[in-house]
Amino acid sequence: MNKKSKYLFLGLILFFTVFTVIGEVSATCNIIVITDPSGTDPNGVAAGSMSFAKNMFQSSFLMSKNQQFAVLSGGEGNSSDRVKAIGECVAALQNGASPSDAASVASSFNGIRLVVGGPNIGAAIGGSFDAYVVEEQDDGTITITGYSTTSGGLAVLPAGHKGAIIHLRNSEGNPLSGTADSVRYQTAVNMAKMIRDGYPATRILGEAMREVATDSGEQYGGGGVNLVSRVSTGDMFTPTAMNDTGYPMSENYTKTCPTCGWSVGFPEAENYQVCPIDGSQLKTTNACDALINAITVTSNTTSVSTYGSDRAGLSSTTEAIVQASVNKYGYNPDKIAGSINKGIHNGLLMGVNYVEPKDISVKENSHAVGVYYEPLADGRTSPPWNLPINSFILTIIGTIQTAIGIVLVLLVVFRSRLLENFQQR
């Protein structure tokens, strides 16, 4: 194990040990799609996970940005075994193992499943699974092959071939229990049709997750990744707290202003029909459409990175604001900073200070923007007001008001004695 792999492995062990203590983390739906095995198409390889179960954090759809592989995980085994399996799988991939060898790690652990893949290397699923492998053969025909095993299984989508792997089982307590077999097959058929018709992997992943979420009830994020362009949904759909479910992928996700980038999530979005900033009609986006939009790269897509704060929702909201600003004004740091500061002023972005143009890094040739935030101290959610009055004057006024208040309190407390003394005089 090289140095980088060792650090990644130790980091995974530390990260997932938290989940081992707090609760189970187990995806019941894993999907990987490859529509361009060469890795040339920026949207040619995508993968994602979701479940009816709780705790669907990013551990269930890991991605290596450096080596462009994904590790999806799940199963009915215990969390500590899953942690070990993921760590060994990632270490194997870091050391050059094939997807089939890396996925086979799951067979050493009872009830664990691993789905592994990426551009140029193909994909594989190992361990305990019920899956279909969709594969385009050399003659252009597309086959759909089913696999079912409780342990020690392995199914492979060879490198150089278009195709997909979908695993689906119903979680305990899912009211749509018993639908997994039929939904798994029908989703595999529909993915095969979309591969045949030339859709990109990111679109196919989103549509497959929509079908699974709606028809099987295994609907909570989770999330997805674009392995070629190294884009992830991050915490968009994952749970906001431990031992909770993620966002339902079968429901609407946000309403967004196409003009200024203002957005609001559901269920609060039910209260808005127009943008409160500029009055524009808001656009409603379903969760699976939001996933597709988040991981699909186009000529008009701006890659936005945020630094300085990991506050929940900050990255995705910044991305929407920057994209709207770029669409309207181009790659202008002053305009981008102004749009962001407008979002901070309106309470759309919280926990960070106002930015300046020097805090905006623009790389127009690569359609990339970096935003460097300064988090606010003492848990503040918004910056102090920039009033046209000196703060020293406000302090004096406050002191005077305090003194007057104390005098009034004393007058109330001692009013009887004061009245008696006045009457005697």
How many DSSP E strands?
16
Average pLDDT over all residues? 88
User: What's the alpha carbon Rg, rounded to whole Å?
Assistant: 27 Å
Gross CATH architecture of the largest domain: 4-Layer Sandwich
Tally the structural domains.
3
Helicity range: 25-40%
Q: Shape, please?
A: elongated
Order of helices and strands: HEEEEHHEEEEHHEEEEEHEHHEEHH
CATH class of the largest domain: Alpha Beta
Distance between the termini: 97 Å
Unreliable segments of 5+ consecutive residues? 1-23
What is the CATH third-level topology name of the largest domain? Glutamine Phosphoribosylpyrophosphate, subunit 1, domain 1
Q: What is the structural class?
A: alpha+beta
Sheet bearing the most strands, described?
A: 10 strands, antiparallel
- The helix tally amounts to 10
Q: Which strand-content bin applies to the residues? A: 15-25%
Protein model, in words:
The protein is 34% helix and 24% strand. It starts with a helix and ends with a helix. The protein is of the alpha+beta class and 425 residues long. The chain has helices at 3-22, 79-94, 99-103, 180-196, 201-216, 287-295, 314-329, 333-345, 391-413, 415-424; strands spanning 29-34, 45-51, 61-64, 69-75, 112-118, 122-136, 142-157, 163-168, 220-226, 231-232, 252-256, 263-265, 283-286, 303-307, 360-363, 368-372. It folds into 3 domains: 3-232, Glutamine Phosphoribosylpyrophosphate, subunit 1, domain 1; 252-379, no CATH class; 391-424. The radius of gyration is 27 Å and the shape is elongated.
Helices, strands, pairings?
Layout: H1 3-22, E1 29-34, E2 45-51, E3 61-64, E4 69-75, H2 79-94, H3 99-103, E5 112-118, E6 122-136, E7 142-157, E8 163-168, H4 180-196, H5 201-216, E9 220-226, E10 231-232, E11 252-256, E12 263-265, E13 283-286, H6 287-295, E14 303-307, H7 314-329, H8 333-345, E15 360-363, E16 368-372, H9 391-413, H10 415-424
Parallel strand pairs: 14-16
Antiparallel strand pairs: 1-2, 1-8, 2-9, 3-4, 4-5, 5-6, 6-7, 6-8, 9-10, 11-12, 11-13, 15-16
Helix pairs in contact: 1-2, 4-5, 5-6, 7-8
